[in-house]
Design brief:
Helix content is about 50%, strand content about 5%.
Amino acid sequence: MDLNLGQKQHQVLKLSPRMIHSMEVLQLPVAALMERVDKELQENPFLEAREHLGHEKTPVTDGQVEKFNPDAPLAHDADNQLDFNRLESLDRQLGGLLDEENRPSRAARQEMSDKKLEAMNNMPDRPPSLQDHLTEQLGFLNLSADARDRVEYLIYNLDKDGRLAANLEELAFSFGKETQPDQWEEALEVLQTLEPAGVGARDLKECLFLQIDENTPHGDILRVLIRSHLEDIQHNRYPIIQKQTGYDIDTIQEAVKVLKTLNPRPAAEFEVSSNHFVSPDILVTRDEDGDYEIKLTDDRIPKIYINRKYMEMYKNGTGTEKEKEYMRKNLQSASLLLSSIEQRRTTLEKVARAIINHQKAFLDKGSEYIEPLKMQQIADQVKVHVTTISRAVDDKWIQTPRGVFPLKRFFGGGTKNEITGEEVAYEKIKQELEAIIDSEDKSKPYSDEDIVETMNSRGYPVARRTVTKYRKQLNIPSSRERKEWKNK
């Protein structure tokens, strides 16, 4: 083996701590940014808060933003003058945040506290769980203490759909007391009489059976269909059902309509919803001239400014070396947060305005007029890297006169209509596909090949696999499953 010395030149992208921090803040949606600011306020003594960030001050211009470029290194000199210069420059741009007179009064701070307490008090109570609901019903039944214990044990062994999570033998074994098999059958019978109907089933079929009573239309037919033909119904194989049961097609279809009213997941209504209210980062309104105005919703973020007391302590160099280092780190953290928030605001405004200008037809006329748009196009227009655009739109929502959308909704590829020559977004092609299927004769639905032929005749060059992919994305079943059968 030979050892040789040589030189190799290559490029490496290195991000400064300031740039990394700026990108992290840019990526945060407004709700997460509010949490981040609250956390910094609790941990950093250099930061204090007023009520809201607000923007009654003179807007920051592009030139001003360059004064606290996020690419700038976190350098500092022996007497900390660079730190002070940075903060004083930032202070002038953001409207005198270092002024002691900006400190909120005791009454103002109390008002802020009252508002937070009111918001907490207005939060909805935890809804009753399935177990709460079922246990409450047990109180109205005449059961012995032992029988009640067994039913409750089954209740707390239901899964999220309301079905038993294990078989009765396993549950009896894990109960911890000596019992008889017939006692667990009785406990299960009691459980299955409770509401919601279908709870306590051991499988899907039993769940559906439990929801059929003497008042259910086509009850006898439904039991036959559930017992032997659920898969045939799923795949729209009505002629097979007709042949094996002797029921005519119309009767089968009527019974299936009733079947679709039954609930395969009776406990679903008790699930704690993971949905959260969307908090838009951007508001778009239309003025009298038909132009769109853009406003960020970050005015809900607490106003933050530098604590003059700690600033003077740091500037005067008082304290031990350990205390000075602690103050220096917190000062840098405060400077980073202030500059990153303003950088986020400026970048997000530019990106949102560029998107809205490009998708004006979408806002004017509707989603079918969305234009193809790539992030690189916005990056070129705003003069930033495409990864900055990706971070700026990530997990951000925009409220428009057309509704609330994720910012990513406005991006998408497209193709050229071979007849008109215009650029058409893939979203438009999906809408065209959906319209074709809506207009078909359901007794003879279009196959994917038929749809390809129709799309091509309208100038949309798509392959069969593309049609299949879009159809599945739109939750449209296959032609066989869309077919409506009739009696011969």
